[in-house]
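Take a sample.
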Amino acid sequence: MRNLSKISNALVSCAFQESSPPLPNGTKPKLISSVYRHNRHRHRAILVDKISRVIFPLSFVILNTAYWSVYLDTGDGPVVL
């Protein structure tokens, strides 16, 4: 695990070196930081959680209502073996 952190630190330091070539207008390219990516993924996960809190219970109610309406409409009742 320690080697993995050394490798990731080396990659990050290599990616954020000051020796990156300037763009034609004289500015340096902006790199997406890992904090920004982490926040973006966290925001997406929170959004999925919020949507799931509505969709899953709603789909359960709809499917349960459809099941019981078909089951009670047939009038056969449960099959006993």
